Amino acid sequence: MRSQSELVPLGPDSLTWKYFGGWRGMLFGPWAGSMQNMHPGLGAAVEEHSQFFDERWERLYRSLYPIYGVVFDGPRAPETAAQVRGYHDTIKGIDKKGRRYHALDPDTFYWAHATFFYSLVVSIEWFDGPLSLADKHRLFDEHVQWYRLYGVSMRPVPESWEDFLAYWDRMCREVLEDNKATRDVLDLSHLDRPPFLRWVPASVWTVLRPPMTRGFLWLTIGLYDPPVRALLGYTFSEREERLHRAIGRSIGLGEKLIPRRYRYHPRARAGWDRASGRIPADAPVVHTPDRNLPPAHLLDSPMHYTGAHENVSGGTR
Fold first, then answer.
1. Which of 12, 79, 158, 201 has a CA-to-CA distance to 276 between 20 and 30 Å?
2. Which tens digit of pLDDT belongs to each residue from 276-309?
3. Close Cβ partners of 282 (under 8 Å, ≥ 6 residues apart)
4. Is residue 101 classed as helix, strand or coil in its secondary structure?
5. Would you give the DSSP letter of residue 264?
6. How far is 12 from 207, CA to CA, in rounded Å?
7. Structural domain spans, the chain
8. Please, are residues 248 and 127 in contact by the beta-carbon 8 Å criterion?
């Protein structure tokens, strides 16, 4: 394992900084969550240890802060990565098929990272159009640099972009499973109003939710690789493929109407602000608002990021 002084965080000259950390990535939430949970070890961990589905929006919104921090926290990124790794220390057990799992098992931990990386590639092409092969190689190399910050085994990490594609295909065809944790992610039938729509009356949301959640599920199905669609029992016609691509491109074009700085999540935006001199280089990192914190009885759990309430060692208050 490298020492903290040898770990090199990504910076504003990277393609990852340019494309990662945007609000548009929220549209990939069900895809990323379901792809992660289809891994047997990760799915078991979520089913047996997570309370994600009891506080869906809060968990998603607060989790983005440390996830983005590993990319955008500059010299403090290795510390953020160590904290993220620490949230997984106690997540282990035996699944319903008698298989042992641990969230820090190298193959399991890397799969979660691989979904973040591949969702970045897929999202760029969905929103902005094709990436050059050179840019895909560059993003791959950056994802390795990013992953190294966690200080975990590099054994599962493919050697190249081409090797990664073979790894991804093998995972989709031979390793991923249709399980409860995956179906729970895709079941949006009880989804509460997102924070930015809390002004919508609950009675109105009850009417709006079914078509909105069906649309989200359809978008998610369109993002899956064909073997994953088959695994989950979905189909997608050529006409749907064309419509799906057109919607993604339209969203990407529409995003350009928003000032660039405000396309980014607050943790990512703060990284850009420090890099540009808009705020001091040693300005504190941005943490999640208290409204996104776990329930009071879980604030001391080592599995949960609790923002500014954490101490420097990564523990909770």
1. 79
2. 999 999 999 999 887 776 676 666 666 666 676 6
3. none
4. strand
5. B
6. 43
7. 4-277
8. yes
- Report which of 41, 213, 50 is spatially closest to residue 110, judged by C-alpha positions: 41
Cα separation, 288 vs 62, in Å, equals: 5
pLDDT under 50: residue ranges of the chain: 1-5, 311-317
- First and final C-alpha spacing in the chain: 28
Determine the pLDDT at residue 175: 98
The β-bridge partners of 92 are 102
Alpha-carbon distance of 221 to 172, in angstroms, equals 14
Tokens of 148: 């190294």
pLDDT tens for each residue of 242-281? 999 999 999 999 999 999 999 999 999 999 999 999 999 9
Q: Which amino acid is at 118?
A: Y
Token digits of residue 74: 């500059």
DSSP 3-state of 92: strand
Report yes or no: 115 and 175 within 8 Å, Cβ to Cβ.
Answer: no
- pLDDT at residue 300 in the model: 66
